[in-house]
Design goal:
By secondary structure, the chain is α/β, with parallel strands linked by helices. It has 2 domains: about 5-145 and about 285-335, Quinone Oxidoreductase, Chain A, domain 1, CATH 3.90.180.10; about 150-280, Rossmann fold, CATH 3.40.50. It is built from 10 helices and 18 strands. It has helices spanning about 40-45, 95-100, 145-160, 160-165, 175-190, 200-210, 240-245, 265-275, 285-300, 315-320, and strands at about 5-10, 10-15, 25-35, 55-60, 65-70, 85, 90, 110, 120-125, 130, 170-175, 195-200, 215-220, 230-235, 250-255, 275-280, 305-310, 330-335. The strands form 4 sheets. Strands 3, 5, 6, 9, 10, 17 and 18 form a 7-stranded mixed sheet that branches. Strands 13-12-11-14-15-16 form a 6-stranded parallel sheet, sandwiched between helices. β14 (about 230-235), α7 (about 240-245) and β15 (about 250-255) form a beta-alpha-beta unit. The longest helix is centred in the middle third of the chain and has 15 residues, at about 145-160. The model has no long low-confidence stretch (mean pLDDT about 95).
Length: about 325
């Protein structure tokens, strides 16, 4: 038996029995323990997802599970019971684009978006897309490795250590999953002061509950007399990017992690301030560091899980509650 969450069309998510997969080649068979809902999953459900996707699709690309078997060409190092998570971006690893940044593989596919994802009790994944995880008292936070890897890749890898060492005060727009994960990525990089802003007081209160030194919150727009050495745009709206340019200090860096459309802004201000704008899409390259951060901060990161659901309860949640809920991360038990 292999029960899964199948999105047949926008608004039509159902739990269904799926074929039990058999690993071939270098694939590894995984029994998935838990899966977290992402904003992409919700947009797929609503029919508003803009990037390439398909229906029907088994949703999910944030998950944690254990190894149950492996194909004949997989490494002998995989042992039954190994705790693992995996990439969202399914890259080939050998094209010219992969040599620069695997998030932009010429034949890229996305788990849970263009390929069936982790929202099933059993899945098979190529070993090159898997990452081993440590054994923790609660493995739930490890299901959030992928969104933390997005922040690590965009902030630590794309910006770089030399620039981050000069940052005295960073600002994050957006207190959703990626925004909060950006707090942990910045602190891990040694940034001493981080401010995160949002319009939802409940989410800001969650960040304050962490009790992290140097981290402050702001409800709404910060004062215009402030300036920041690094700004993370994780809200995904044009006005926040325009505001980030206004609040950036001279020679500051702006990291765009939110999904943007057209932006109307004064680019002359970018030139006058000599700003660096870095865009990053994807999590490849950030997994190992993200796993290390979670191993050290799992007690806090587990608080981001604001709702837990059984698999059978997910269709009703998406149909009736998700549009009004103030959840940060919803964790689904697939066992």
């Amino acid at each position: 038996m292999n029960k899964g969450l199948l999105l047949t069309a926008p608004g039509d998510l159902r739990t269904t029995d799926l074929p039990l997969p058999t690993p071939s080649g270098d694939q590894v068979l995984i029994r998935v323990h838990q899966m977290a809902l992402c904003g992409s999953d919700i947009k797929l459900y609503q029919g508003t997802y803009k990037a390439p996707h398909r229906y029907p699709i088994v949703i999910g690309h944030e998950w944690i599970g254990e190894v149950e078997g492996a194909g004949p060409q997989a490494s002998a190092t995989w042992k039954e019971g190994d705790l693992v998570t995996g990439e969202c971006s399914v890259f080939c690893g050998c094209c010219p684009a992969c040599q620069r940044n695997r998030n932009y593989c010429q034949s890229i596919e996305k788990m849970g978006i263009t390929l069936d994802g982790g929202g099933a009790q059993h899945i098979v994944v190529s070993e090159r897309h898997l990452h081993r995880c440590p054994v923790l008292s609660d493995s739930s936070p490890l299901a959030l490795t992928e969104p933390l890897a997005v922040a690590v890749q965009g902030i630590q890898k794309r910006v770089g250590a030399n620039t981050l060492r000069q940052v005295r005060h960073a600002l994050i727009f957006g207190c959703g999953g990626i925004g909060i994960m950006s707090v942990f990525a910045l602190l891990d990089a040694g940034v001493p002061n981080v401010t995160i802003i949002d319009v939802a007081e409940e989410k800001l209160a969650l960040v304050r509950s962490f009790g992290l030194p140097g981290v402050t919150t702001s409800l709404g727009d910060p004062s215009s007399d402030q300036s920041f050495d690094l700004i993370v745009e994780a809200a995904g709206t044009g006005p926040t990017l325009a505001r980030a340019i206004e609040l950036a200090a001279p020679c500051a860096t702006i990291v765009c992690l939110g999904h943007q459309g057209s932006v109307n802004t004064d680019f002359g201000l970018v030139l006058r301030k000599s700003l660096s704008i870095v865009a990053s899409l994807g999590s490849c390259g950030g997994f190992e560091r993200a796993i290390d951060i979670i191993s050290k901060r799992h007690d806090l990161i587990s608080r981001m899980i604001t709702r837990r659901l059984a698999m059978d309860d997910v269709p009703a949640y998406l149909a009736r509650e998700q549009s009004t809920a103030q959840d940060v991360k919803v964790m689904i038990d697939l066992t």
